[in-house]
Amino acid sequence: MTYRRAAIPALAGGLLLTALLWWAGASVDALRLQGATSALGGRVVADLQSWLSPWSYDPPDSVRFGTGVLGDIGDPASADPARYLSLHETGMQIRFAAVFALFVPGALLLVRRLPPVNRRMPATLLAVWAWGMVAGMLASAVSAPWIIASTGRGSYRFLPQLAGMASSGQQIIVVTALVAAVVTVLAARVTAKGAGPLPLGAVPVRAARLAATAGTAVVSVSLVVLSYESVAASLQTASLSGRLLSEPGDLLRTWLLLGGWNAPTDGSLGRWLLYRLADALLLAVVWWALRLLPVLLTRTTVPATAAGGVCATVVGLLAGQLFQFAVTGADSGLRWGWQYLHGALGSHVPAALTWGLLAGLTAAVTLRLAGGGTEAPEPAPAEITTAA
Q: CA-to-CA distance for 324 and 280, rounded, in angstroms?
């Protein structure tokens, strides 16, 4: 598919994602009304507010009323609150602009190399959905310095604040990115008409499996090694010199850890294994996606494979989180299952970006070395069945 045909659905999806997030942030004011609490319940309203507040132009009370975060007389926010309000507004403008600017190139690449035709539509939908979540997370991280500075304590624990900003608001991005992905894929299916046959690729089975295994091994370094409790604790307690960079532990965990686990301590091995199935599901999704990616791509390029690795890791995270939700709900009741989902849905996306990118690059290099990265003519039906 040409860039011109792929640009229309990418722009449409980017505009819709940005508009949905802006609308979601503007809905925070409505949740503060007494009628919302009476209709939805206090707990649901509080959960929704925590989902939507990171995308709201409405600043925190400490900035809005000029009292400062700490409430001290000499606090910077009490000196000139209008400047801090303006700084917060600038940060939110950067956040929404970054969502659009980051979503469009990724969606353009995915739609062009993974057009939703010839049995690719489910894969394209999942990939664009995952990229929407990555774009939202990156937008939060890019705009975080302005939001942090608007609180009047930009130099206080800057790296932990930056880590928290990058991980905030992910629950609503999961929902809005899905809607934007559906619109993007439907528009791409229309624009793909007349673009040619866009056949599936013919890739040696052994090369595709070897590349998928190598990429999955990279992801397992984070999920199995770094996410072990003692190793994660070492990352958490890491320290550096300098005022702004003195506490990198939270930032390292945000961008490097895909989960967290420890050896069974209560003697219930069966229950421990049940919860570890979520990690196994993540790795299985990554392996299967990287295995099929060379077949589904119209051309196996390094950027397309790297983006596919990121999307595969994000989709695997979502699958594991939904599985954990089902296990927690069945084990402790629906209420506790919902509380787990409220806190975990869309989490660890920064780490998925880090390790998914490395996994995709590793898979691309392995595929080239194994002789599976060459162009091939349109395969016969029997070859397609074998490759898939």
A: 12
